[in-house]
Specification:
Blueprint lengths: L10 H9 L20 H15 L5 H6 L3 H11 L5
């Protein structure tokens, strides 16, 4: 069950929590794996958080296409009708 997207933490907040990164250090162009050191277990946790808070399920093939913070934000935003 998801809560309202308006009440949900931002994607960057979720990334910061999962990756133990300061949110202010996360930039749109940062690569999740290379720059932020989000490994496969962190990514799985992040995707579960996105599903819980936003109700957006990211399937396996789509996950392979996401490499940056901006791409992840755009995917969630598009799934929510343009409002991440």
């Amino acid at each position: 069950m998801s809560i309202s997207a308006a009440d949900s933490p931002s994607i960057r907040t979720l990334i910061a929590q999962v990756g133990s990164i300061a949110e202010v250090d996360i930039r749109t162009q940062d690569r999740l794996s290379e720059d932020l050191r989000i490994d496969s277990l962190d990514m799985a946790a992040l995707l579960l958080d996105i599903e819980q808070f936003y109700g957006v399920v990211v399937d396996g093939p789509t996950v392979q296409l996401i490499s940056t913070v901006g791409q992840l934000e755009a995917l969630v935003g598009k799934s929510l009708g343009g409002r991440p």
